[in-house]
């Protein structure tokens, strides 16, 4: 007898060598032997052989229409064999049943696991929100890849032109702009500042350092109003004292001294 079972969140197949109480001794295709509790066994089968069944199960799982499967499942908790009867239109054969388990397990946004071989379809609104989130991430990945290509070609993407300093000096590492800048720099084996210079985001290394200084110390800008500098008085009184200055012999300007 062969078994399809779950172990540490993974699904495996093997041949039963013996049974002792509530456990089987199972030999896997690799030759490794494992102790499997009967409660972890989902399918028992004689044919096909374990490796053939697993290959067929993976092929079946890849062909499962998850949207249709979700509609068939309804809103009540179910076992995979029950759902297989509805989905396939007949009691599922071992490869079909195993493939269905793999498909259910690999689609947590469609089906929530409730126990060994038992699942429940996600509520409609939850599923829609999850699918929308996945689609959003796909679109962001496409945009990010476009930014990377532009940066590698020496062109600064339009979305980055107004946030160059933020990307370099205080980035939000969750944004696609930062991720694109980091990815492009890694692929070109350079740094983000050097990449910004080559892509035209910064005019020169001097501009980089000045921008960093202003960004850190004058975050609200350096556009201060004009300041009227007072004129130095011309009628300062002279003190009748002997002043002494200690300076190098080459000093040409005496700007400090002390008196006694």
Provide keyphrases for this structure.
10 strands; alpha+beta; 5-stranded antiparallel β-sheet; Exoribonuclease-2; 2 domains
N-end to C-end Cα span: 111 Å
Secondary-structure element series:
EEEEEHHEHHEEHHHHHEE
- Note the beta-strand portion: 15-25%
Secondary structure: helix percent:
40-55%
Report the sheet with the most strands, covering strand number, pairing sense and barrel closure.
5 strands, antiparallel
- Count of domains: 2
The whole-angstrom Rg is: 36 Å
State the shape.
elongated
Number of strands: 10
Order of strands across the main sheet: 4-3-2-1-5
Poorly predicted runs of 5 or more residues: none
Can you count the helices? Answer: 9
Oligomer: single chain
Mean pLDDT: 91
Would you kindly provide a brief summary of this structure?
This protein has 260 residues and is α+β, with helices and mostly antiparallel strands. It has helices at residues 50-63, 66-73, 80-88, 94-105, 124-152, 164-169, 176-188, 192-199, 205-217; strands at residues 2-7, 10-20, 23-28, 33-37, 41-45, 78-79, 111-115, 118-121, 243-244, 258-259.
Notes on the structure:
There is one protein chain. This protein has 260 residues and is of the alpha+beta class. The chain has nine helices and ten strands. Strands 4-3-2-1-5 form a five-stranded antiparallel β-sheet, with helices on one face. A three-stranded antiparallel β-sheet has the order 6-8-7. The longest helix is centred in the middle third of the chain and has 29 residues. It is elongated, with a radius of gyration of 36 Å. The termini are far apart.
